């Protein structure tokens, strides 16, 4: 796929920066920038579309009279990890601060440092709040403490602020670790029992709870699904979207700046597994009942759950339910579907139709996002996007636009668009779920046994006999294979 430069809203450069940094000649070496002079502020200069990594780092560094735009801080901290590791970036930032503010000299310029101190604290605080996982590395905390140690002689209050920031950071990291451990635990529990009932319909009598025995109210189930979704979203860091698609940059002589790649995207991957589990859980619940009337009731129940998910703004659960109902072992149950009232289902399918790059869904998402921005309650603020499509959008942005231009400059225009998409997601994930938790339902959603794909087909054939020789042969093979395992 040809790689191009993306268009988007750009940031202006602070005075003291090169006014032509986005259009340097391909072979031109960019002179080192000294940063904005004291008294400089953001000017209405040309937008930053591309620049050398050194220039972008300089643009991040605050001074006594300059602080980068908040959107720039997020965009650069999100994307810089493709070119430089967070500890190395923070080290570079601290070195520039020490040099520009003469923090290695004695005595310090107290008046100047007192103006600079709050700004570097603001930058580091923003970093810890937005990308707390970066500070799992001791080097990061070490750099933070070092720069505060240098400015503390001018105002002892800096130590107090440092301790407060580190205390909040420690609490956030503990929450992240606890959340990751609980997600792994749930995944292990679910996978360890997923095949136990794979052939239960062939073994009477089944002793198995089903969803309708746990919760027969579609509104309540949709609300509990929203709890699960927001809990997963809460643990996904913005950096995971970048790290999921990191590649070796042919214009970059270094390796990608990540160690344990699996760990770096574990929350994102767990969320994708949850989507798949919900698809299979829906299909299992439909295929499980022995009687056609009961299966039709389950179909109607999940249609109502899906409709309520749409009304809430929970598009991820909505799509998982629709996907589960469209799985072949479910869709082939023609006699069952004929007994169910499906008009509402076809309306929901239309909303999530992939035609026109999911045009209908994207229209509904924009409506939910607008409602969220003008909301007066958390109930109206909920926006849970169809996550796989969000990942796909980011993937194609990454594949379609080069990280660097031929002259070696960073294609900052691309990362502005990346930050826009990720930043919108970060806003949505902060919403507190307004619904009361039902632990019994949540436990069932996480731990109820689900059929494997073969188990679904076997249960489907047991419910409605194979219609042709291909299905008959498959049914026979599945029965022998699955029963042999159990």
UniProtKB/TrEMBL annotation:
Residues 44-174 form the N-terminal Ras-GEF domain. Pfam families: RasGEF (PF00617), RasGEF_N (PF00618). One of its GO terms (molecular function) is guanyl-nucleotide exchange factor activity. Coiled coil: none annotated. SMART domains: RasGEF. One of its GO terms (biological process) is Ras protein signal transduction. SUPFAM superfamilies: Ras GEF (SSF48366). It comes from the Eukaryota. Residues 217-466 form the Ras-GEF domain. Keywords: Guanine-nucleotide releasing factor. This is Ras-GEF domain-containing family member 1C. The lineage of its organism: Eukaryota, Metazoa, Chordata, Craniata, Vertebrata.
